[in-house]
Amino acid sequence: MTVIEDVHEVHGATFRDVGGNRVVANYGRPARVHRAVRQVVGVIEMGYGVVTITGDDRVEFVDNAVSNRVPTADGEGVYALLCDPQGHVETELYVYNAGERLLLFVPPDRADPLVADWREKTFIQDVTIEDATDDFAVFGVHGPKSTEKIASVLNKAGSPEEHLSFVRGSMVDAGVTVIRGDGLVGEEGYEVVCSADVAEDVFDTLENRGLNAAPFGYDTWDALTLEAGTPLFSTEIEGRIPNVVGLGNGVDYEKGCFVGQEVVSRVHNRGQPSQRLVGLTCEAVPESGAAVFADDAAVGEVTRAVESPTREEPIAFAAVDYDLPAASLTVRVDGGEVGAAVADLPFVEGSDESARIPRYDD
Asked: For position 56, which CATH number holds?
């Protein structure tokens, strides 16, 4: 459930489920709101699960589990993955070092299982693990004017400059933490974290004070991130080896052991996985799971597709054979096949570049 559902309802929101969490789908006219985010700035309530880790061994404990190096300095963050022994991604995490604790943002349905699993593995380490999802609200602020927006309402601190770094300040009378995002919608972006009890005031500030920001929901988020070439956990990442998705930003191949490292490193050192993630332009919008064909041979499937409001044409992600033949491509739509073509990523150039754009060593 969203932290400020009553506020969203006043704005005319409709809702949908994301990972077991009720989030805003849209407020009506999602294509119009999409253009507002691309051209100016918008604000969205993010549906994260939140886990806190305290204790003297917190950094070492999490670092031993995840695929990237956990930062040791207050004010820094990292994007990381948890894999199974076969190297498949079980969950994604943003890990932030907040001084006396680590703050983890995870898919909403992964917070409880993660807490339960890690509590069984603490042994003698000085680590306390808590599900703090209900204690926080997180708002994303995205668009080419997002830095201007944050500057117009943030007190006692300047906007953070480095991706996944953060500062502490206030908005009106509410204490907030402001994180510089990693460009998931292809535009400058920030996440504003506050306690749940002041979430309504912070959302009002982000929407109406200083430079106004257009509220948007996950229908627009899906389209913005696909245009930006950003793989998402539930559609492109979950259950796949990181190399298939080209997630170089989520894995440090030089760090110590983590679960699944042997498989992930072997695929990395071999130079290419069996599949890769590509962008497609299509003659019609396919459904997720739709087959992709090269001539008459099935070579993969669509993971996500939308009618791009910016390009005004259907675009898609597809997981396809790594050595995709130079042939005419089609995708299955409504029982038939329509033409498709591999497209350069990102589909849309913005004021920032997504850190997750698939990259491969050819």
From this structure: 3.30.1360.120
Two tokens at 335?
């029982």
DSSP state of 286: P
Cis peptide before 215 (omega within 30 of 0): no
Residues 6+ apart with CB under 8 A from 81: 66, 67, 68, 89, 91, 92, 93, 237, 242, 247, 250, 251
Q: Are the beta carbons of 194 and 176 closer than 8 angstroms?
A: yes
- Tell me, yes or no, whether 30 lies in a domain: yes
CA-to-CA distance for 89 and 116, rounded, in angstroms? 18
Give pLDDT tens digits for 49-61: 999 999 999 999 9
Strand partners of residue 80: 93
Which tokens go with 227?
């245009």
Mean pLDDT over the full length of the chain: 94
Give the residue carrying structure tokens 């990442």. Answer: 237
262, containing H or E segment: helix 261-270
pTM: 0.96
Nearest Cα residue to 189 out of 154, 160, 222: 160
Domain annotation covers residue 222: yes
Pairing of strands 128-131, 166-171: unpaired
Query: What pairing do the DSSP bridges indicate for beta strands 42-45 and 214-215?
Result: parallel
